[in-house]
Amino acid sequence: MPAEDPAPAEKASSGNWWDGPASGGKAPSGAAGEGRPGQDAAPEPPFDQPRDPWSAGAPKAKRRVPVVPVAVAVVVVLVAVLGFFGVSRLLGGGSGAPAGGDASYYGTLDPDKYSLQEAQLDLDDCYEFEFPLDGGIEMTFDSFDQIGNTNPYDVARVYTDSSFSHEFPTSVTMFESDDGSNALYVAPADPRVRDENGNDTDEIDLFHLDDAESDEFVPLGRWYGSGGYYLVRYIGSDGKKLEKPEVTYFTVANDIDKDENALAEPDNVQVNVTDTGTLSISWDPVEGADHYEVYLSAVNETAAAVLDRYTYDLLASTQDTSIDTADYDTDAAEFNQMMQDDGVAGTFQQNGRFDELLVGESEDEILENRQDAASGQQGLEVADYVPNTDHVKDASISVIAVGADGDAQSPFDFQNINDLLGKMPLESATYSALIYQGSDTEPDQATDPVGYMKWRLFEYVSMADGTVGIQRLQLDYDNARTDNEYLTYGPDEQHLTTGNVDMYVIPYTVPGTALSGELGVLAPYWPGGIESVKQAATQALDELQRENPPSGMPTRIDAEDGIDWDAVQASQQPSTAMPDVPYEINASSDLVRFIAANLLAGNTYLDVTDYANAAGTANTANTANVADALFEACAQNPLILNGNPTYQVTRRDGRMLLTVTSLTPWKQVNDQDVLNEQRQQVSDKADEIIGEIITDGMSDADKVRAINGYIAENLWYNYDAISSGSFSMDAATQDPSTVRTLILDGGSICSGYAQSFKLLADRAGLESVYATGNVPPQPGVYATDHAWNLVNIDGSWAVVDPTWNDPGDQSNTASTDEYMMLAQDDPALQGRSYNSSWMADTLISDYIDPSLLSA
Question: Which residues form the Transglutaminase-like domain (predicted)?
Fold first, then answer.
């Protein structure tokens, strides 16, 4: 039987649909000092300040039942209340124990900028603040839009320092009381923590939540690790933005500063970028410390869900008093090793633990989007890229000392490192290199060798803040060599030569980074050998040095091209209507139907707001719902010609927007006229096939056999495509992955077989679905991802695998019935499991036993 297919491309999304610029959500800059108030009773404000009705009240006896969610954070609250609490635990931080004496925050913060409320001391360590709302005010998604906000954290946040530089993990929810009035509640949250390998874990209880002394029935988080906290409210009880943010300083009774065994903070913590672009972190030793743990805290200010908003990564656990993050970068090390095992020399990634600090798309990806937008693609992010809080999470580093028993620890002291991210390389900026070093700008290396080397001697690098930097290569001539490759080459497309050719290969490093690789040039253009390459490169570097001396780190590229991309972004108009298309649409909801109809009509930029809200509970539609609908639409409507789309979901001006970023798999064809023509050709071919193989009086089972037989006799399995794992062939004539295999001459893989079966089954009047999942490993097969079909026969959903019913030999057209209408529990299907991408999650159980779903 044919080999299974490689894993499909991972779903891609640019962020949650509620993401967007936080309006008024960030505390104004300029707060004086880093000092903290002491634990003494706070003095009266130095100005006439009445007690605010939103200030902290008395602890509550029991938790209310939520009725209207403000954000996905509410889901976390509900899950916890229902008993699924403890998925992951971590500690939000501060900058150590508060200062002693009579210091108070009234003297620390500027009363001209902030309205200072009465301090609240020694609260319950899981205390929840209650903010009553005026009559008729609801802090739902819709009301946030009405007041110009898109995020519940625009209402209130909690910080661990008086400069408001580090946000403590918090949930913001709305509840309705028995008398029908509404109130917001701010409580400590239990966000995501990851171990040294980057894996989510609940083994690290940095909040020491197990030691919480709470009046709450189910504590959802704990104020711990700072010693003092600043609750900042930006939106008033009337739903309007406050003229001055209102600040309430508070402490809790069971915090780390109350622990007589608490260790002192490490002093003299230094965080710097090394000469190779990694982080060096050092500190002074702490008496009583057994070891030290280094944490990276990241706050996504645009996210509303707790697990999306706050992450804490354990970067290192060490008994030393310094680390280089390169020594703990397992993800990058594994990728680099994989490339080297495949025979590709060099270092291609670094700073793997910092590659999730970007919010949305990198500048490199935006440059690619601009190329696609120039060819007609709508809805992509193309506006000028400026690193800010909408693009980069708030990133901070803290070192804590830990005692021998693991219980005693020092307070958190987070230092923001956002100003260092632009100096930390991640990987080569592939799209930027293609754009700026495209063949249309390449100097002729035969006639202008120095100009050619000036064009080649650069590396484009994506940095941790999302920007793209450029740096000159440093060539290692001592280790240069000659290779022989089978290539197609020539001065232009009209003068190409195919055959074996010698290449001069010169290793290089990228100064200011840990990246490296090899520069190859074609020997026929360099009759003087490697020495002539060296001479040209040396002269090129000398000229570049005079023109623009290089810096130690990659410097940001100049992406200015004279186009007003802000205007281009603003001019894009998403589809809002349900188009009339000449094809039957399979859909389980109006949202799926809306997406499918638009994709069949060639529209890839869609406003899904109304359909998404109608498909779920009001005001709770999210990215997952839309992605679920998109994948069902593409899986069950083969004429979309893309069974595995990539996408972006964004929220702009209160609307939820979907952009399908590949019109066909792997962006092989992006011309809508070509796609529409081929779509119609496939549809006509399907009608022709059905007219030939289906006759009156056939039972459903007979129709299934006829369709399976036609596919086995007329499709052939493309082993070359599957074994190479590369589908970059010309999709105008070849496409092994979709239903276009019925009219093209490129062979097929399992998705092409199953999509073809689905289309023909639809035209034959059968009830069928396209399904995907995994099959047990087979001898000689390198992947287990697979696609097949389910057909409703006499009220039961039976399995048909048209790929495995084809013997696989192109010269053998006989079909087998080994995988023909099998019961889902048939022994021949043992070990086969389903994923959920092919059908709406809520409907999966209508087709298969849920126990067959992959874990």
Answer: 743-804
